Amino acid sequence: MSDPAFAGIPLSFYDSRPVLELTQSLWKNAADRGTRASVDAAQSDARAAAHAAEARMRNILADAEAAYWQLQVSRETVVLLTSALESADAIHDYTTRQSRRNLADAADSLQSQALLDFRRLELKSARDTERAALRRLNALRTAPVSAT
After folding, report:
1. For a Cys staple, 123 with which of 63, 81, 90, 135, CB 3.0–4.6 Å?
2. What is the pLDDT of residues 70-79, one digit of tens each?
3. Is 1 domain-assigned?
4. Alpha-carbon distances of 141 from 18, 63, 131, 138, rounded to whole Å
């Protein structure tokens, strides 16, 4: 009965048929604590993601409102500077006529020319600022809102 290949191994402890063994830890998941903890963690993650999405949306809205007001201020600045340019042009015309009639110094005409050039540059800068503000607002209006 004793085979030399199995020498020293008692054969009475081994079965040649399939056996199903079930084990349950007594402390690991007692009263479903582990399962409840997993569910609570998943719910907390979902709440955190919802709060993060709400914060992102509030930031986008705040940025869009700031961009809108920047555009509005830029447009009012362009209107104001257009009026200032028209006034500078009228002053330049007046001083140029007075200078040609020898009723004013040539320096006055040069000074009014400098003012006119300054107002033109100022208006160009204001229009560039207006275009930039419009681009920013449009970018915020059409920006995709990611879910993450």
Report:
1. 81
2. 999 999 999 9
3. no
4. 67, 10, 15, 5
